[in-house]
Amino acid sequence: MSTPKPWLAALLNIVLSPFGLLYAGQGRLAILFFVVQVAIGITAFVASGNVVAVLGLLQIVLIVTGAIIAYRRARAAADQPRPWYARWRGMLLIVMSMALVATLLRMFLYEPYKSPSTSMLPTIGVGDRILVQKIGYGHVSTFGLHLATLPHTAALKRGDLIVFDRPLKPAETYIKRVVGLPGDRVAYRDGHLIVNGQDTRISQLSDFADPELPYLWRRYRNRLDGVQFDTLAKNEGEGMLLKARPEAPNIPFIDRCVYTNVEVRCDVPAGHYYVMGDHRDNSVDSRYFGFVRADQVIGKVVGIFRADGY
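RESULT FIELD:
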């Protein structure tokens, strides 16, 4: 028999909340604090602006409050057998179990990401959080580590947003839109995306002010297999198409593409996808690194949570 040390209970709750409460023998209270903290974390992921700051402050208040309660309960604890979860082996088992569950969820079901660039504007901006569905894509990975490859069973559609390992540079993770499926003919000319002979552009909208550059981009509404999305481009004829060339001579199936000064045209091979960024003139995509293999697809974007400024 032993009594918990009050100072250790408080410190443990600050370092790894709410384990200080567990150490103090307060199992139900620890569960309550854990549920509330998880709910705050999820809300902060989907929120933006001042709400995130308020939620962060609330998390700190909860951690400190839990530390104070853990200290007081540990000091008042009687010298009697402690519950299994208040012992070091029990707490270690709980930590390992929680880590395992969280890792499996990220590996096989859903994983959050944060957008690092403006290549998907106006759909996704810098700092936007996205949620990626990994079920059925066979890419067993988490925290940037690709651990295994399983059969690809989920079907992608034109217009889907995907996260994938960049061809030839698998350590880099990209977010782009699928514009070409296996067997499709994809062409990009004069700022127009043409898929199987059909122009995807349906209208021009008001110009878009770039939050990072003193430049107004032309904004266009597009439709691809029923999916509507906006794209950005420079004025007609001012794009960067002249620079659109394969970035390496060893790109697989590059012979299925034709590059001219006015057009990029590709026939998508089996088991591959053609992807582009919505910020057409500010995106490194299949025009440069080629087709994306099915086993390079990490998952499909199912949620976009905007940051400020876009």
